[in-house]
């Protein structure tokens, strides 16, 4: 991956111009590298079917970690365990020293793990700004009463949140769309609104569920550039479940490969790309042709 590919506004993207300063969070405090996200021996069983079988991997701080595998490999199950939607039958998921296993999704989110959805989950008539403001909910300090009574403190806080939404909108390339209904935007931009809403939570870990699924080639490139920019500019750890091998190869620092619920390989994109077990399971081709195919997909 070249530097330009990693940066929004670079050759492959042109998505976003301004990075919000990494040190300027909603609190104005200095941000620290996120703790590692450690998945240890996670098993998930559904009525006799083992969807995940003792899977372990670590998402290193500030890295993009892709989870890939053929259909039914267990990627979505893994994603759902990380976001708290599914409870692991056994094993553990930790953010630093904090155990996440068994926490409800809103508790996981409150710990700074934001997610996007494979299918769009935007309020249909809300503007882009209001949709993104939803992501600020957990950071809102003014209580119901202060907001309802329109106290100056609540008004000031609301202004600060809107300003931050503006910065993040610029970062993901939506600055010109803030007042438009999110539902009226092209699909690729709606997905960026979702990404922006997740970033508005000021997460330390971002879980992306097939972020480029259903996009045109141009939208894929723009979105990949934004994701690369998030990693570069904000230092957030990113877990990426994605079918598009080109995007995975371009964005990921590390890849975990699942097949029939088992982790069959892990390493850098180059390592897994030439791993015979991966080629057999995932690509079903000879290592030579698999590598060629992935390289071709990675070429914009
Ligand atoms: N809620 C559930 N109840 C029963 N079985 C499930 C459930 N969710 C997933 N499975 C099964 O677990 C296995 C793994 O599914 P999962 O959706 O995690 O795979 P995946 O890698 O995300 O597949 P795809 O790429 O097709 O989305 C599959 O056999 C699937 O049918």
Written description of the protein model:
This protein is of the alpha/beta class and 300 residues long. The chain has a single domain, classed as P-loop containing nucleotide triphosphate hydrolases (Rossmann fold, 3-Layer(aba) Sandwich), CATH 3.40.50. Helix content is 38%, strand content 20%. Helix 6 crosses helix 7. The longest helix has 21 residues. It is globular. The protein binds adenosine-5'-triphosphate. GO terms for molecular function: ATP binding.
Terminal Cα separation, in Å?
Answer: 12 Å
Main beta sheet: 6 strands, mixed
Described by the principal axes of the CA atoms, the overall outline is globular
Helix content: 25-40%
Gyration radius, to the nearest Å? 19 Å
GO molecular function, one term: ATP binding
Protein name: ABC transporter ATP-binding protein
Pfam family, one: ABC_tran
Organism: Streptomyces camponoticapitis
């Amino acid at each position: 991956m070249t530097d330009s590919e990693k940066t929004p506004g670079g050759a492959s993207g042109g998505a976003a111009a301004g990075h919000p300063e990494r040190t300027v969070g909603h609190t104005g405090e200095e941000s620290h590298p996120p703790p590692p996200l450690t998945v240890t021996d996670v098993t998930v069983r559904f009525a006799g079917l083992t969807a995940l079988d003792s899977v372990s991997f670590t998402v290193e701080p500030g890295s993009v970690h892709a989870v890939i595998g053929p259909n039914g490999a267990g990627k979505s199950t893994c994603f759902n365990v990380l976001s708290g939607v599914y409870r692991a039958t056994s094993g553990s998921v930790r953010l630093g020293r904090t155990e996440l296993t068994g926490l409800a999704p809103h508790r996981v989110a409150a710990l700074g793990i934001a997610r996007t959805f494979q299918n769009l989950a935007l309020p249909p008539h809300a503007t882009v700004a209001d949709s993104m403001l939803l992501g600020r909910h957990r950071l809102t300090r003014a209580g119901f009463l202060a907001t309802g009574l329109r106290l100056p403190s609540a008004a000031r806080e609301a202004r600060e949140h809107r300003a931050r939404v503006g910065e993040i909108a610029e970062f993901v390339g939506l600055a010109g769309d803030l007042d438009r209904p999110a539902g009226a935007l092209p699909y690729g931009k709606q997905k960026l609104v979702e990404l922006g809403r997740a970033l508005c939570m000021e997460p330390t870990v971002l879980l992306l569920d097939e972020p480029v699924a259903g996009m045109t080639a141009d939208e894929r490139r723009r979105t990949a550039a934004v994701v690369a920019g998030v990693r570069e500019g904000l230092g957030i750890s990113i877990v990426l479940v994605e079918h598009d091998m080109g995007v995975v190869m371009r964005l990921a620092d590390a890849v975990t490969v699942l097949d029939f619920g088992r982790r069959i390989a892990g390493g850098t994109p180059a390592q897994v790309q030439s791993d015979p077990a991966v080629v057999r399971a995932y690509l079903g081709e000879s290592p030579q042709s698999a590598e060629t195919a992935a390289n071709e997909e990675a070429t914009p």
